[in-house]
Predict the 3D structure of the following.
Amino acid sequence: MDAPSVDAAHFRHVVGHLASGVTVITTGTGESRNGMTASSVTSLSADPPMMLACINNAVPTAEAVSKSGRYAVNVLGDGQGELARQFATAAADKFRGVAVHPGTLGLPLLSDALAHIECEVVEEVTGGTHTIFLGRVRSATAGNGQPLTYFRGGFGRFAFASDDEVYGRARELVLSRAYPADKAVPLEDLATRLGVDQAAAFYALTRLSSDGLVRRDADRGYVIAPLDVRTSDETFDARLTVELGVLALALDRITDDEVAGLRRRFDAMAAQLVGDRFVDFHGYLDANYALHEYLVSLAGNPLLTATFGRLSIKSVMTRSFGATPSTSQKFVEVQGRLVDAIARRDADGARQAAIDYCEAAKERVREILSLTGGHL
């Protein structure tokens, strides 16, 4: 017997219960550019890196992607519901008022998106009213934050609020040195201190491990990762090496739009400092990381971006700078010099500002470690 058919409206209602991430697919050919909000996007393969994007054939973006042979996946953050609606609504210029910069493939990327993935189409598959574009990933960058999700016809934030709250309190325990460096964190003890069950405490430990604040030891379980001068120096020197390489490779071809992107990220970071105190340390940390990750991405080299992501910069800064609410405006000033030098395409000035920032960061960690017995 033939299976009974499913009404299209009923089907849309049912599949609306499947929560999915929200992206904006963008592409461009010549002077034109197209974009649309899409949730039918997923990773297809890790080796080689490939993405799948499913686009309604009635939407101009489908034809534009097919014609250009390229598309970018702009992953939206949890505060970008209006941006999703803008690109989901028919308009003569969906990009109006939206900050955009060119990607590695020359595609228009939404500058404030949570992540960007640029793809070259290797195959098109027609399925009913849609075309499935299989894309080989050529560039991928990501910032920090929570993704926007689509569920039952609306946009929202996908998060487990209670788990996030437990993780935040566990993080404060580690940063306040409630557990000594290189000592195990007993799961039962952490759960008792936090007043939660062991499952919630375990979730917090796994996130702290991702942050680099704890590490998994085969014999002892989760152990507080120590921070000393050597670890700090090696980390900041590694970041400097990557950034000097980026400046050498890309400074001459950085566009004015990309400089504007740097300035926006710098301004967001600077706003988190008043005098010599953090307004919001974690806000500063995220903004600082976003600034330097964006700088590295300007080289258009995925290997450099991936290398930067593996440096545990945020962990080192959290363990050191986060130990005190005070800091110095000199960190903002030297990074401002770096952005200004890049805007002037001043290679010597940019290189010196990057070196000065590295040395200032290492010196500040030394000052903090001197107050805590040499390690945190």
In short: The radius of gyration is 23 Å. The chain has 13 helices and 16 strands. The mean pLDDT is 86.
